[in-house]
Amino acid sequence: MTTALNFDHFDTSVPPTEDLFRHANGAWLKEVTIAADKSGAGAFIDLRDASEAAVRDIITSTGGGDASDGERRKIADLYASFMDTDRVEALGATPLQPVLARIDAITDARDLSAHLGWSLRNGFSSLIGFGEDSDPGNPQRYVMFTGQAGLGLPDEEYYRLEEHAHIREAYRAHLERVLGLAGMTDAAAQADAVFALETRIASHHWDKVRTRDLRQMYNPMTWEEFTASTSGIDWNAFAEAAELPVDKVADLVVGQPSFATAAADLVATGNLDAWKSWARWKAVSALSAWLSSDFVDARFDFYERTLQGTEQLRDRWKRGVSLVEGVLGEAIGKIYVERHFQGGAKEAMDELVANLLAAYRISIEKLDWMTETTRAEALDKLSKFRPKIGFPEQWRDYSALQVTPDDLVGNVLAANSFELDHTLEKLGGPMDPHEWLMFPQTVNAYYHPLRNEIVFPAAILQPPFFNVDADDAVNYAAIGAVIGHEIGHGFDDKGSTCDGDGMLRDWWSAEDREAFEQRTHRLISQYNELSPEGADGVRVNGELTVGENIGDLGGLGIAWKAWLLAGGDPNGEEIDGLTPGERFFFGWAAAWRGRVRPEAMKQRLATDPHSPAEFRCNQIVRNLDAFHETFGTTEDDGLWLAPEERVVIW
């Protein structure tokens, strides 16, 4: 059995009862240097680096394939088109010219509507976004969703809050720089027009907390109802340019109806020249990563250096890997699984998942705040969870995708159009239970409330999250808590609005919902008081992060219970001088080892529904009786939380 914990990372001068995160990671935090091409460092990033290197090996070992091996040839050809820097530099801004000529030819609102549709077909960020998912009213079928879009800054608050004034100034300069590179002789005036128009668009966006509410976001309409409510856009022209069969979108779910109506009114009443400037900016922004180095450098300077604090552009091969993965991810995933998926990992994960579900069931059965009717619904939902582990049972077909080794921008546009066709093929049809929304080589996991499924790709099933040679205490604290976290999303503020079949339905009694919300509000209040290192006093948004915080709280608490069910003994035989109980919590802390740049931290606080790593570690254990019992905390300890103040939900 491996030692599993890296004691070189520990700082024993910091008691675990004072700061568990820095006790387990303090030496690493003092010594770590964030790579110049990254906004952070840590356990997740280490695994992502390893996955990236593995994918590079897959891409570069395809050798171009042959006529009978279409997927491998496409992988090699797409990568070759990106790595042909001589051709990319020689072309400069030339690939933009056909797109800019289309925009120059816009003469009225109908032409502008057609351009919005053409943008959807070609994968450009547009005014209103479209994408498919399970229908919340009938989760067994796919339906088209619409959503607010149209901005170049990370969130609508960047256009209005004083704390982002310096970002707005930098963005305005970025607009002028990029439009100038694209050949605009009046780039300054066009940049002003774009920024003013985006500010108007942003004023109609729903805020990020409101968009967490699936009930508010579920607004089913027929195509006729939607187009009537957004008549400022010529939807016939839009559909024709997008090659969008109207029968495929006969039913839609409109995410933010007031935004869609207001955005359409802006199209009808706004200044056409300003809209054309906005369209030019969207086109150049969408393609800048695939153009010559002056465009790439400009994009990096704002979106990574200014917003994230990143010091250096990623090596070209890394950006090429990201492109090929984004386009042909499952084709790469098949090879990744063959080469890198650990033997025995799936069987071990099946056992872990079963134990986590059993622990949730026992916990729900014993909840003292839930009535029997709601409890029965919760247990029914739990029984219907669908785990997916490692890789898909069925792989995606890429035969219709056309790729050539000497046309990078053409390949990107073809891939975007291919994705839209893939979306349209699914609409109206039955939901595919084998579909994955992540690749096997992705270091992450997810829960989908409309499908009631938990998904764990192969790449996350590695140390420090999962180690087939480690003791159960460490594995349950790391991957067990990840599993528990994803299950917990089924019962967080968002997931709890859907039932076991994924249907958006209120299965709660009023009494139980009030009891649940009392507990979540206490958790929100806890996190609202927290400000991480490097954030200049900016605090966590407890309402934005509540879903992830509920997932963390339930995940670790249920992981502890599952470990006990599996035979874990907190006071059992010591390993490395630590009791199993201590190893459990140190395994949890090791999984959150990480540091991010101050600029990136501030952006995450503004936009990310996840709390900073130090609080995902420390604030959760403050609420767990098991932590206080394991380490014998007292009122004098930094992580002490009085029993009556501890939040227990599931």
From TrEMBL:
CDD domains: M13. GO terms for molecular function: metal ion binding; metalloendopeptidase activity. PROSITE patterns: NEPRILYSIN. Residues 16-392 form the Peptidase M13 N-terminal domain. GO terms for biological process: protein processing. It comes from the Bacteria. Residues 444-647 form the Peptidase M13 C-terminal domain. InterPro entries: MetalloPept_cat_dom_sf, Peptidase_M13, Peptidase_M13_C, Peptidase_M13_dom_2, Peptidase_M13_N. It holds the Pfam family Peptidase_M13_N. The keyword Lyase does not apply. GO terms for cellular component: plasma membrane. The keyword Lipid metabolism does not apply. Keywords: Hydrolase, Metal-binding, Metalloprotease, Protease, Zinc. Its cofactor is Zn(2+). Belongs to the peptidase M13 family. This is Peptidase M13.
